Each structure stands twice: as structure tokens, then as C-alpha cells.
Amino acid sequence: MNALRLSDLTTTAVGGPAAALVEAGSEEELLSAVAAADDAAQHVLLVGGGSNILACEQPFEGMVVHVASRGVVVVDEADSQVLVEVAAGHPWDDVVRETVAQGLAGLETLAGIPGTAGATPVQNVGAYGAEVSQTIERVRTWDREERRECTFGFEELEFSYRDSALKRSMNAGSPRYVVLSVTFRLRRQDESLPVRYAQLATALGVEAGQCAPLELVRETVLRLRASKGMVLDPEDRDTFSTGSFFTNPVVAQEELTDRIPADAPRYPVLDARGHEVPGAVKFSAAWLIDHAGFGKGFGLPGTRNELLDLDGAAVAGGRASLSTKHTLAVTNRGSATGEEVAAVARTVQRGVAEVFGITLVPEPVLLGLSL
């Protein structure tokens, strides 16, 4: 156990001191650390890549467990269907790279997402028209209440957009179910699954719904993400963020109002299997932020929201701002506190609600903070 600051473990590089840290390099060490904390009635914070946590500067009095287990193993194969079990602490981008290298399709459009494999089913992470729910077979967990191993099948995970039964069981950032491994059902083939996202299809030179070579899709996704500051780079302050801070809002058809312009981009809402959900529309959070007057870099000196008459630098002293590459990321420019990053997010959230009547929902776990 070592004293540390949460800022050392999170991609936004904010967060105060923690009482204790345990490095769990194996499943056995993870279970032991969680059991010890539960026996001592300590609050448990699991940290993988630290990309989905925004913490305040106040001390965290519980146990921080850094999940660093590794392993990507083919556990079954029949015809072109391949089941791959991945340890919870395996870096997610490595999972994508390794499965693509083995000629396994299903995860290629999720390249470059920071964090670890164990976090992906909790948040039902997604990008470029795909979500992990579309390939997850089962998730093996430790139930901290029942003190036993518990495996969730697809239906039991109750996936929805950026949500799952695992996420809903969390309390103040601490999980009831500790993910031990995730098993994905992939396909052995040279080409990707059909490309759904128009921007990605254009970059690949194919039509939406067509396929492309696996490695080319992965590389193209990485390039697109990097252009938006969504691939971690220690030399680029635009990447010191939680990635997309807000989810794309889903609005029921009957709740749509004329406050939302007719030209606002609208997308179908898909269920966990990738089928369209009737009666609901998904909007682009980035578009709403931009058209509520918050341009790229809002929060830096010299920036303003003319529509709402807001001075950017007055929000957090220029120490936190929207990314200069993408309005959906809230960034630490070098010396921000968690409160200052939250202040920028809060200003954006309230501004979008004022202009469009839509309250954006944050993606990261907020520790000691609120919007």
C-alpha cells in the first residue's frame, strides 16, 4: 500500500490524496484487496485506466484498487464464431489491437478508447456506430454483497445507451459487482463488420453498411479520434480529459419541442443488439454544445459565449476549458482542480439547457463533485 493522489491515476490528472492504494496485478490480488476493504468497511474505488473518473481535491478516505490484471484468451471457437475472454485490467486499446491482429472482427471501431476491458460493459462504451453490448457474451464478476462469484449473461446485463445493470448497481462510484473478466463473441474474418457511422465510412472510402479491411478500420478510427484529441498524448493538453464528458441525449418523440432546431442532427436509438428503438431520437451533444454558443476552447483566455454573454476565462481562470479540437471534451490545461473542470462542464450543461431545454448527462463518475 502506498499513499498517492488520484490525479496520478486519472486521465484528466485531477483529484486529491487517497488513504491507500493496492495494485492488483491478478484476479486473486483483486479479490483479496476488495475483500480486505470490505472486511474493514472501507469505501472501495476501482481504477483501471482512470478515464471515467473526475475527482475533487478533498482526500479520498477509502481503498483505491488499481485493476491491472492481464490476459486475452480464446476460450471457444466454432465455425467463424470465436469466444474471447479478457481480464478486467487489460488495456482496452490493446484488446482491440490484439483481436484485430488475430483476424477477429467486432471490436475494430472501438479502437483508441482509453481505459480497461472491465470498464467497458459497465458503461456500455461505444463509438462510430458500435457498442460493446453488441459483442459481449457474458461478464464474470464478484458480488460484494453476496460474497460470491456471479456471471451475467447478455440479457441479465440489461444494456442500454451508455448504461447497464452493473452501472446502476454502483453507489457513489463504488461497485457492488467487481468485474473479473469479459467474454466477447467475435467473428473470424478479414473484413470488419458493416460500417454504420457516416464519417467513418467516408474516411474509409466505402458506403455506410459496407465492410472494409479490419486493420484499415482500426487505423482509420485511431486517426479520426486523434484529430479530435480523443487519443491520450502526454504532449497534448487537449487529451487530458475523460473523453466525451456528456452522453448524446436521447429524447422521446412526444417530448420534442420547437426549441430544438429542425436542422439539429438526429440519429436512431439502437438497443443492445443494434436494432432501432421506435419512439425516440438521439441528438449530438457536441452539436448542441456548439450551437448553444460554446465553441472549441471555451474557458481559455479570450474565449466567449456571445449567445449567453459568458466570459470563458471567468469560469475557471483558464485552467480548464473545452478541448480546442472537440467541444465534447472538458480538459485540464495544466493546473486545474477537479472543481474547475466541473465548473466548465456545469456552465456548458446549464447553457445547453437554457438554449434547447435539454439537460446533458455526464459520462464520468463524479467523486465529491456535482454539476
From TrEMBL:
It is found in: Cytoplasm. InterPro entries: FAD-bd_PCMH (IPR016166), FAD-bd_PCMH-like_sf (IPR036318), FAD-bd_PCMH_sub1 (IPR016167), FAD-bd_PCMH_sub2 (IPR016169), MurB (IPR003170), MurB_C (IPR011601), MurB_C_sf (IPR036635), Oxid_FAD_bind_N (IPR006094). Belongs to the MurB family. Residues 14-189 form the FAD-binding PCMH-type domain. GO terms for molecular function: UDP-N-acetylmuramate dehydrogenase activity. The keyword Acetylation does not apply. It catalyses: UDP-N-acetyl-alpha-D-muramate + NADP(+) = UDP-N-acetyl-3-O-(1-carboxyvinyl)-alpha-D-glucosamine + NADPH + H(+). Pfam families: FAD_binding_4, MurB_C. The active site is at R162, S244, E363. Transmembrane segments: none annotated. This is UDP-N-acetylenolpyruvoylglucosamine reductase. Cell wall formation. Pathway: Cell wall biogenesis; peptidoglycan biosynthesis. Its EC number is 1.3.1.98. Keywords: Cell cycle, Cell division, Cell shape, Cell wall biogenesis/degradation, Cytoplasm, FAD, Flavoprotein, NADP, Oxidoreductase, Peptidoglycan synthesis. It comes from Kocuria salsicia. PANTHER family: UDP-N-ACETYLENOLPYRUVOYLGLUCOSAMINE REDUCTASE. NCBIfam families: murB (TIGR00179), PRK13903.1 (NF010478).
